[in-house]
Amino acid sequence: MEESSFLIDIEITNLKHVKTKKNDAKGNPQNCIILPLELNGIKLNSKGNGYIIPCIMRPVKDQKPNQRTHTIRLNVSKEAYAALTEEEKKAIPWLGSGKRMEETHARPIGNTPPPQNDSFDPEEDDLPF
């Protein structure tokens, strides 16, 4: 199977969220988005040190040249999906799109996760970074 790189765009504001402003460690205001974990199906990763948004990426039907080749949606388990009404199924958020990249355009970046600070107090006005 051929290895491919994809350029993907995730529209996190298609998840349930709240926009707010908080100050960073230097007191500068920062635009922020707060995502409720359970309401959005965000899960603790297998190591217990981060969070994941389970997604599924599927090819787009009737692809056109230079267009996005894949669509990205929130992934719902087979059991949970079967229990949804048609209205609830239609409400599963579309999260973004992807496009297969040519190898000459692929720019690998490090896989080091960003620093975490789980001691963040949401009642404080300042961010831990």
Structural notes for this entry:
- The structure is a single chain.
- The protein is mainly β.
- It is 8% helix and 31% strand.
- β2 and β3 (29-34) form a beta hairpin.
- The radius of gyration is 18 Å and the shape is globular.
- The mean pLDDT is 82.
Brief overview:
Helix content is 8%, strand content 31%.
Strand order within the widest sheet? 1-8-7-6
Helix content: under 10%
Q: Structural class from helices and strands?
A: mainly beta
- If you compute it from the alpha carbons, what radius of gyration comes out, rounded to the nearest whole angstrom? 18 Å
- Proportion of beta-strand residues: 25-35%
Contiguous helical run count: 2
Quaternary organisation of the protein chains: single chain
**How many domains comprise the coordinates?**
1
Name the helix and strand elements from N-terminus to C-terminus, one letter apiece: EEEEEEEHHE
Q: Distance N terminus to C terminus?
A: 42 Å
Low-confidence stretches: none
Largest sheet: 4 strands, antiparallel
Q: How many distinct beta strands? A: 8
